[in-house]
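Retro notes (design track)

What went well: tokenization of the new backbones is finally stable.
What didn't: we kept losing track of which sequence belonged to which structure.
Fix going forward: every design gets posted as structure first, then sequence, in one message. First example under the new rule, 174 residues:
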């Protein structure tokens, strides 16, 4: 398969998985904290300027995680394989897991269904690593009614979290 065609195949895989998840390009962009343009480019298999991609980008890896794939799934698709589900954890991977998260947090993140997440950046211009990461989890068998109710609560909460000012957002005393 020619290289440009591989990127188109990857783009189609992203678009099909996004649609199967019931997401729009705008929703994906919001969740990844990017504009719609890179999502369109990824799904088209070409950069915004029309050139083919040269490598898998951080946005592609984040998009893969959002869809429930492993970070190496884009490379797998480019190589003619299928994406790998991030929820599939074999015993070797489990034994090699070296998470630096507290055990209770690690367990909570692995249990249930991940419904959404948000990242609130708190750092200054010199410190863009300080952030709060909130992951919305639900039971595997959540009903549509429960999900709708939970989603409304989450939308309100997420708006409040995203309104927390980072250091660069606070007024400077002169």
């Amino acid at each position: 398969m020619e290289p440009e065609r591989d990127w188109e195949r990857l783009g189609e895989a992203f678009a099909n998985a996004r649609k199967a998840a019931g997401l729009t390009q705008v929703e994906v962009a919001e969740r990844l904290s990017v504009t719609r343009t890179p999502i369109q480019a990824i799904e088209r298999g070409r950069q915004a300027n029309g050139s083919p991609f040269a490598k898998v980008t951080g946005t592609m890896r984040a998009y893969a995680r959002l869809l429930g794939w492993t970070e190496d799934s884009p490379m797998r698709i480019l190589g003619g394989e299928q994406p790998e589900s991030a929820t599939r954890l074999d015993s070797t991977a489990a034994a090699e897991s070296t998470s630096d998260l507290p055990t209770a947090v690690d367990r909570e993140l692995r249990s249930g269904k991940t419904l959404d997440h948000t990242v609130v950046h708190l750092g200054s211009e010199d410190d863009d690593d300080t952030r709060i990461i909130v992951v919305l989890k639900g039971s595997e068998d959540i009903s549509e009614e429960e999900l709708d109710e939970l989603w409304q609560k989450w939308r309100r909460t997420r708006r409040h979290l995203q309104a927390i000012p980072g250091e660069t957002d606070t007024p400077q005393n002169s």
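Added context from the reviewer: The beta strands are 113-121, 131-138.
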